[in-house]
Amino acid sequence: MKVDISHKNSALEKLIEDPSITIFMDANLFIPPDRGGKGKPMSFDMFRSIWLDPLFSTLSGLSIHESVYDEFVQDDVKSYVDTKKSAKSNPITVHYNKNMNVTEQSLMQTYINMIAQHSQYIPARDNKKDRGEVLSLAYMAAKGFIYFSANDFLPIRLIQEASSLKTGLDNLQIIQMYEMIYYLVKHNAGDKQTLKQLYKYMYRRTEREKRDNPDWTEFMDGMDALYKAQ
After folding, report:
1. How far apart are CA 64 and CA 150, in angstroms?
2. What is the pLDDT of residue 230?
């Protein structure tokens, strides 16, 4: 994944301005990453402590589509999300297709057909591959939601290249994981050192990533330069 510290992201600016905005999340932001290499995969408890708990402590508009919720088959992940669904403070909202009107349902199907051709999801089969991303984005477009957060090439491409791909997602905006990490650090949510380690694990794990992506100090300085007014 590429870290861009050369251009402002208006979606991150909006989040900094208003932490209550509705942000739909991809499943990969809930599941502990396993990037291989030496050492054990990150445990859910560690991922929760470093990443998920700080997110929910600061953001009140976190949401998922029902197709993403269905992807949570690991007991610890599903249990965590179920707990957050019923939390009194900053609960997560699960959006269901059954709450759409007829016009919205028709629009969603149109978006699904436009988006799916650029993915491995086959609507007629309703297969699992890329299902969560495609259905989430189609639902958002049909309902008029704007912000999606992910750490996956597919949804990032579908949104950033909406015009050339003709996905219909021109009004959607993406907030990437590294931008969320920056947000948490600047709002004193979570532990800075462990967030630094998470950044390195996600974006500077390989030799190519070390060449292409900024180290932690350069990353923070670059982001500060972009968003210092906030």
Report:
1. 11
2. 52
